[in-house]
Amino acid sequence: xxxxxxxxxxxxxxxxxxxxxxxARRSSTPEFRAALLxxxxxxxxIRTPAYQAKIETNIEITINFIIRLNRLLTPAQxxxxxxxxxxxxxxxxxxxxxxxDVPRPGPPEAEK
Length: 112
Prior knowledge:
Elements: H1 5-24, H2 30-41, H3 49-72, H4 75-95
C-alpha cells in the first residue's frame, strides 16, 4: 500500500476550506444547490492529482489482494464470505435509503 496519511490530512484541510468558501456564499438558488451537490458527490475533484493517483494505486493493490485471497478460499469459506458480503450490502442499502423514506419524528399514529 502507498502511504497516504499526510495526503489525506492535506486533502481534509482543502475540503474544509472549500466547504467554508461554499457555505459563505450559500443561498437557496439552484446554482448553490448544484455547487453543493457537486461538492458532496465529486470529492475527487478537490483532490490533488498526486493524492488521487495514490488512492487509485491503493485500490488496485486492494483488488489484487482480494483476488489472490479468493483463490485460497475453500468452497465453504467462499460461501460464508459471500453471505457476509450480501449482509453488509443490505446494511449499506438501508443506510443509503432515499430521505423521503426515512420516518420523521412526530406524534404517534393514535394522536393524528
